[in-house]
# Entry
Amino acid sequence: MEWDVISSIILAAVRMAVPLLLIAMAELWSERAGMVNIGLEGLAAVGALAGFMLTYHTGSTWAGILGGAVAGILVNLIYAYATVSLCANHTVYGMAINLLAPALASFIYRVSFGAGGGLNQIELMKGVAIPVLKDIPFLGELLFNQTPMVYLAFGLVLFTNIYFRKTKSGLNFKSVGEHPKAAATLGINVIGIKYLSCIICGALAGIGGAYLTTCYSTTYTEGIVSGRGFIALAAVIFGRWNGTGVMAACLFFGLCDALQIRLQVSSAGVPYQFFQMIPYVATVVVLAIIGSKKAGPKANGLPYRKEER
# Structure
């Protein structure tokens, strides 16, 4: 395989890993407080629609990113109230979000533009090249000539690692996911941190969805998230609930996605659906290999009742 082909696949892998990384980091922050949220697919879907709608009407991709974050927060507060305040089952309400949110996004889009309307498009976010560094062969294009959202996503990994390892508030945050009752005896606001984790999760998942319609695709289509929410769940497990590990997992899945697109182009006569399976097959294989090894927060998915001792 020629170097130009390899470099193009790697560049595409980084771009495709970014929405996965944002959504996976949303789940990481959620699970660090004991909140297992499988509704990422739905949160990303409403984020994608909000990002497209606001960019379409304002002409600002940053307004679209902000709108995606707000939309994700608002929808995820339903999950937060049900699971934190009502102590409902996390899996049930996560799936409810996956059913509700994409349907709501499709309904709003059809009401706004009509079911038979033409293709509505927006201008994507511009890249920001870092002077001098962008001229480094290959690495300059890969690391220093990207959209601001790429820098934000990888900067978030660094911030997350420092926050959870080096700060007192980060350790308090993690303690809620490990042993909430013990954390409460130390004066930590368990309920408040759980709600905060849901707000962060909603915002990041919504931004991940908005990335798809402001930095990746010029329009919104039904199913634009395409299972990325579920792949992000696998990335958190694959990355062992660690920011750097999650980033590596997302880059791996992004590489699988970039590879399947390249194979579709270069393999004429083979049904494209065969290659589209590659990222999902990789997800299943990864979970089959390491999914049985428990390493997540000990109180993950467990209801917290303040009155219980």
